Amino acid sequence: MYWKKIVLFALILILLVVGRTLYYAGAFKKSVIIGRQETSLINGMIGAEDITINQNSGFAFVSSDDRRSTVAGNPKKGAIYLLNLSQDSPEPIELTADFELADFHPHGISLYQDNVDSTQWLFVVNHRAKKNTVEVFQFIDTSLVHVKSISDTHFVSPNDLVAVSKTAFYFTNDHDSHGGVSSWKDFLVIGTGQLGFYDGQKTTILENGIRYANGITVSPDGSKIYVAACTDGSIFSYNREPFSPMGKIKCNTGVDNLEWDSEGNLWVGAHAKMLVFLGHSKDANKRSPSEVLKISFPKGQKEVVTQVYLNDGNPLSGSSVAAPYKGKIYVGGVFDDGVLVLRNQD
Questions:
Q1: 146 is catalytic
Q2: Which listed residue (105, 107, 154, 175) is catalytic?
Q3: What CATH class does 31-343 carry?
Q4: Residues contacting residue 74 through CB under 8 Å, at least 6 positions apart
């Protein structure tokens, strides 16, 4: 009888672990399609995983990489594209066509504009074959000029970054290693992600144990850091100086990249069904829902999370970013070709 109790206990424990994993992956969540007016799909940018927009000029920078080709052992050089959103029908312009580094696989990006001299700098997470780097470009007129590559042993699995000066940036490692045991830890929803800071000379890891640390940004006034914890379904907030945890915004979905609008609202590209997205990552025919959240911060009140868009995986699957600009939302995905343009109905 004793061994039967042990087996029963083990089965119950396994069911609880599996149930917990499925819950965090959104398997039990009922998805009600929330449509927005889909104005267009701007093709020609495969795997537009991250988008950031200069709200003054209307220039959008798009990080593009064919990730399925890389996994298949046939890596193709990625690219940074420019979209001029002041145009009625913006066409993607490749800014890195002359970038001599063939081993270019961009992920998260961040645009920094210096308030003193008005220069603009684009920071790009790059997954090279043998190491991860941050590529720094200066944006001059409508061209990107490569300035330097930054490497550090702490860049173990960088996902996104946010620049706070010409030389300094915060970044996320979605895991604390390149892989291996991370897979079973992900299944058990054990956080191995990190938040780090590169000050121009050295790197400091500020926080450990984040469940799939993903998108990162600083508040418009520069005082706070926000980090998307994808498998936690939350966005964590921190005071910058001195660094200290503040709390978290519960979103109940697989939050990815973070972008601000001109009114101080935070926009989030998200994965409503994480296990479905995992299937989509391996097979383009398995469509994964694209979801967009808007987070507002009423003065003196608790933040408000609003789901503003959710599709069934069409016309764009696996959304990772939602960047707002003048009444429209530009949505990119991890694997699909193109940027989906939505009409902001607020």
A1: no
A2: 107
A3: mainly beta
A4: none
